[in-house]
Amino acid sequence: MTQSQRILVVDDEPNIREVVELYLRREGFKVDVAADGAAALSSIEQHPPDLIVLDLMLPVLGGIQLTRILRDSQLSVPIIMLTAKGAEDDRISGLELGADDYVTKPFSPKELVARVKAVLRRTAGDKANADASQPVTIGAVQANPTTRQVLKDGREVTLTAKEFDLLWFLMNHPGQVFTRDQLLDNVWGYDFFGDASTVTVHVRRLREKIEAKPTKPVYILTVWGVGYKFATDA
Q1: What is the value of pTM for the model shown?
Q2: pLDDT in tens, the chain (234 residues)
Q3: Which of 52, 93, 94, 191 is the Cys-Cys partner for 99 at CB 3.0 to 4.6 Å?
Q4: In whole angstroms, what is the distance from residue 35 CA to residue 59 CA?
């Protein structure tokens, strides 16, 4: 972590904002806070963060809506969601939109700080690895790790940061079958705190973006009882 890294904490509960800000500042982060989605957007415009800790239940502009706005704008800043216990649908919706991790309330501030550091490490590692790699083309799909651009039939496909990471990993191992746990380890990292359903969500989102018929994929294939693989040719 560098001293310049900035975290935006978005939560409508003052006590949570204060505690999370305190713990993050102790670790050397710069911290901005916002009480709702609209205030968060204003803060992002003024001081672009390196990571956002985002409560999904917000007034004015909810966390899901804010995540959608950020991803539609192609802002690839990592997002850690704060969700109420049992709010599985909201959590899945957030992951589908491109959130990188989630924490269920009530949570330990120390655990949240650990997740912030883990996501930032993964992000830095992804960028470092991508810079040293060459574009890969399989069938009509091309992925360029330097620009993080994906083309399908010559047209650009907009992916979230983690969708690109998953696609890039699979395309670099064509024909090789990976279980969901193996994909979690290789794409999200050993220190990821989520579960294997995260992979399923991201695979579904990728298919919706690069497959002509997502229900009958020709690129990202399911190997029943095992996991997923990227076709060697399509």
Answers
A1: 0.60
A2: 444 689 999 999 999 999 999 999 998 899 999 999 999 999 999 999 999 999 988 988 989 899 989 888 867 789 999 987 666 777 787 788 778 888 888 889 999 999 898 888 877 665 555 545 688 999 999 999 888 899 999 999 999 888 999 999 999 889 999 999 889 888 887 556 667 788 999 999 999 999 999 999 999 999 998 999 999 876
A3: 94
A4: 8
Claim to verify: residue 123 and residue 185 sit in the same structural domain? no
Answer yes or no: is 120 within a domain: yes
Which CATH number does the domain housing residue 48 bear? 3.40.50.2300
How many domains are contained in the chain?
Answer: 2
